[in-house]
Structures are given as structure tokens and as C-alpha cells.
Specification:
Shape: elongated
Bound molecules: FE2/S2 (inorganic) cluster
Structural class: alpha+beta
Order of helices and strands: HEEHEEEHHEHEEHEEEEHEEHEHE
Radius of gyration: 27 Å
Oligomer: single chain
Number of helices: 9
Number of strands: 16
Mean pLDDT: 91
Distance between the termini: 51 Å
């Protein structure tokens, strides 16, 4: 009975429609863009980002729906039973070209010096839609101040006002540090310095070079990098990262893996920007044993033997409660579990804590 109810409910939730003359099924509440993507049909987008609520600001995703005079944005229009959608036509092509031209009126063509070159969504679409000139004459926006943190640089003149950064700051990170406000030169992104924590989510979702990383600026070109997926070393959450490695084998950027749990692309300021310690000259590479005149390098075997012998001596002299352990917050849960097991079961004390406050 229960299963039949579920079956009936799921049948009621199925919507049948046609996209580019192909029979497609979608779930109730999905947008035309989501239904097309699930069916393997590509619709161009610029402001849309799968981790964010639809924004509908760029008009690149326009599609024609049979029976409606005007094309509509696929990213904000929900599917409906029996509709027939066209994603490609001469009219749509021209509309998308016009949308790009409107954006390019104010967007500087400084691709040779922009770090986003090669991975810029606007650059790719401009090329795909063959936009070679911008005939519109609009007053150029002027910006007097730009926002900078230790890690992020804002290039307001490159901003296409897609609002992905505003939505990501609010919906993904929950900081609400970004907003769009009307200034003397029209709308622009404004950053509340007190709320910004430099997490870099705005940089990750920016489709152009409007928000960039300061740290590795102009040191690399995207097409010369390779990526390696790894787990963030900073805490036990296990966020999935992509390390971007330049042609010299050095990490130049870290981004979150958008389709992977547990972070779904999101990273904190440490995970995203705290990687240069890897190349520090001061990095410890071997254990150090303290002696009268300071430290001397030792092998792991020697260091671990020293720790074990010292533990044994202290336990013999003062009992197991004279020893305490603090497990590192960067450890995974399993390592912390083993640490408390070692202290309770082997050493024989409950003096064990975890520095999960970093
Ligand atoms: S992607 Fe739909 S309006 Fe921008």
C-alpha cells in the first residue's frame, strides 16, 4: 500500500515535454534548463550556477516555447506538461549575441592580462557566438575604488553584474557580505568589509575576472595548469579540493570540487588560500630532538623511541595520569579515535582532548 502510494506520487511528479523535438521527462518543479541538462541538451548560460538559486540576469539561456511570442529564460522558467521547447534558432542566436554585446559594452577587453583568460565563461561564449564588435554606445562605467583583502582582488570594471558572487556569499557561505547597489555610475557590487571573511567563494563562482585571487595573480596561465584532487588538510571535515599545478610543478590555486561531498565546492579561507607553507624554507622535514644547545635532527625511529621511553619513565615515576594528550583538529576522525584509544587503553589515562577550536 505504502509503495503504491509512493509510486502514484512519483508518477504525478513526472512532467513530459519536448526539447528540440526530443521527448523528455522532468520532475515537477524543475526548470527548463535543468530538464535540458538532464537530457544532455546544452543551453548556454552565464549567470546560472548549479549550486545557486536561479538569478536570471544575463539572458543567455533564452529558449522559445511553442505558443509564446517571446523567448524566455530557461534557468528561471519551470517545466510544464506538454510544452515544446526550442533551444537553438536564428532568433535565439541573435538574441544571445545581443546579450553578449550588451555585457561587452562595459567589459574591458584586457584578456591578455586577466588571470581568467582561458577559463573565462564570457570569453568562451563571445568566441562561440562570433561576437567580433560591439556597436552599442553607452556611457562607460567608472569606478573609483575597488575592494581588496589579503587574498581577493575585485576588478569592478570587469564585473558583468551577473550576481553570482552576491548569491554565493549569501546562499553558500551565509555571510551576506556582498550586495548590488546603485552608485553614481549605475549598479555595482558593494562589499561589506566587516562581514567578508575572504573565503573566496565569490572568486570561485565569478564567471569572468571580476573577483580574482591576489595571491597567485598573473603568475600562471590556466591552460598551462593541471589539477590534482585531494582532501583539505586543515580540519577533519574532509573537504574535497582541486590543486591547480603550474608548469613548474607548483600549486598556484586551490578550488573546491563542486560535485563532491561534503563541501560541494565550498572552501574556507584556510583551505583555499593557506597552501604556501608547503614551499616555506622554514618547513620542518624531519623530527627535531631538543638537547642542551637547541635542536638536532633525528630519524622518526629515534624520535618515536624517545617519546615511548619518556612516557614509560613518567608512568613509572608518577603514574599514567601524569600524561595528557591533545589530538590535532587537522586529524581525521579515525586518527582521533585511535589517539584516545592509545591514551585510555595503552597508557591508562582519560587525560585526552582534541583541539577542535582552530
Ligand atoms: S543563465 Fe539564465 S538568465 Fe543567465
Amino acid at each position: 500500500m505504502h509503495n503504491k502510494y509512493k509510486e502514484k506520487k512519483s508518477i504525478m511528479n513526472v512532467i513530459r515535454l519536448k526539447i528540440d523535438n526530443k521527448e523528455v521527462t522532468a520532475r515537477k518543479g524543475q526548470t527548463i534548463l535543468e530538464a535540458a541538462t538532464d537530457a544532455g541538451i546544452k543551453i548556454p548560460t552565464l549567470c546560472y550556477h548549479k549550486q545557486l538559486s536561479p538569478i536570471g540576469s544575463c539572458r543567455m539561456c533564452v529558449v522559445e516555447v511553442e505558443g509564446y511570442a517571446d523567448p524566455m529564460a530557461a534557468c528561471t522558467t519551470p517545466v510544464a506538461e506538454g510544452i515544446s521547447v526550442l533551444t537553438q534558432s536564428d532568433r535565439l542566436f541573435r538574441m544571445r549575441q545581443d546579450a553578449l554585446r550588451m555585457i561587452l559594452v562595459n567589459h574591458p577587453l584586457d584578456c591578455p592580462v586577466c588571470d581568467k583568460a582561458g577559463v573565462c565563461e564570457l570569453q568562451n561564449l563571445t568566441f562561440e557566438y562570433g561576437v567580433t564588435s560591439v556597436d552599442y554606445q553607452l556611457p562607460k562605467r567608472k569606478y573609483t575604488s575597488a575592494y581588496r583583502t589579503t587574498f581577493i582582488e575585485h576588478f569592478p570594471e570587469r564585473c558583468i553584474l551577473c550576481l553570482r558572487c552576491v548569491s554565493a556569499c549569501k546562499e553558500i557561505q551565509g555571510h551576506r557580505a556582498l550586495s548590488m547597489e546603485n552608485g553614481e555610475n549605475g549598479p555595482q557590487i558593494v562589499i561589506n568589509r566587516d562581514k567578508c571573511v575572504s573565503c573566496g567563494e565569490c572568486v570561485q563562482v565569478c564567471p569572468v575576472g571580476g573577483m580574482l585571487e591576489k595571491k597567485s595573480a598573473t603568475k600562471w596561465r590556466s591552460w598551462e595548469t593541471t589539477t590534482v584532487r585531494t582532501t583539505c588538510p586543515y580540519c577533519g571535515v574532509g573537504c574535497q579540493q582541486l590543486l591547480h599545478i603550474d608548469k613548474n610543478g607548483k600549486i598556484v590555486q586551490v578550488t573546491g570540487v563542486e560535485d563532491a561531498e561534503p563541501n560541494k565546492g565550498r572552501l574556507c579561507v584556510k583551505g583555499r588560500y593557506g597552501f604556501d607553507f608547503i614551499y616555506s624554507e622554514e618547513r620542518l622535514k624531519t623530527p627535531l630532538i631538543r638537547e642542551k644547545d637547541g635542536f638536532r635532527e633525528a630519524s622518526w625511529d629515534e624520535a618515536l623511541d624517545l617519546v615511548a621511553d619518556t612516557f614509560k619513565r613518567i608512568i613509572k615515576e608518577s603514574g599514567p595520569d601524569a600524561i595528557a594528550g591533545v589530538s590535532c583538529a587537522r586529524s581525521i576522525n579515525e586518527d582521533s579515535y585511535q589517539m584516545q584509544k592509545l591514551f585510555r587503553a595503552v597508557i591508562g589515562t582519560n587525560n585526552i582532548d582534541h583541539c577542535a577550536r582552530t
